[in-house]
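Sorry, can you check?
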Amino acid sequence: MLEKVNIFRVKFLLLAFSLPSFCGYCGFGAKWNFGVDLHAQSWRRDVRKGNEYYEKNNFKEAEKKYQEAQTKKPENFDANFNLGDAYYKQKKFSDATNQFNSLKDKTTDKEKLSNLYHNLGNSFLKDKKYEESINAFKQSLKLKPQDKDTKYNLAYANAMLQKQQQQQKQEKNKDDKKKEDKKNQDKQNQADKNDQKGDDKDKKQDPNKGDDKGEDKPKPNPNQMNKEQAEQLLKAMEGKEKDVQDKLKAQRARGVKVKVEKDW
């Protein structure tokens, strides 16, 4: 899967310049006589030396030599391109991006421009600027449609962009949830404060409210008899029973049967 790939393919254009061979006259005190520009030889020599350092993975020294060549020949594409490569190898991705961007108008050679956009895409990719990386790879493929390395890196950049967008979406959802939870908590806290204010107000109006000591005493039940009333009722019932018994005795003495209903 592309997400597991931790390397991508980089194109390097390290041009090894050589001094031209000239046929001057032979003999002692031989001279170059074809108008050779010694200044041009000097910057080419810097580029060659830079390439030697580069191939030995001494990218810092390679950078210095390419910068010297650039100072002597600012418009030269190859020295500038190799300087961008040296920046990239030292993980100076922003410097590499700026260097490659500055070269877009310095050549019309399709092969060189394709390599330029390829490495520009890699620099963006390392900086996690995936959309810019994708655009650079697409530009490279316009110039060289069948380049497999560029196609591979383009697919990788697309996969990384999707992963980045997914992570950003998840983070946004988490942030939105935190904000919503905080909003709900703030509402609940405000509701609790309002309830507390209401309770405090009620206590001021009725100090005994909610106090066990101030609870209302149970009111007497009007239908419930006290001890004195119960004794009076008992005496009355005993008197009534005595009257009934006296009547029964009198009637039995006369021989008359009397039906007595129980008074419940």
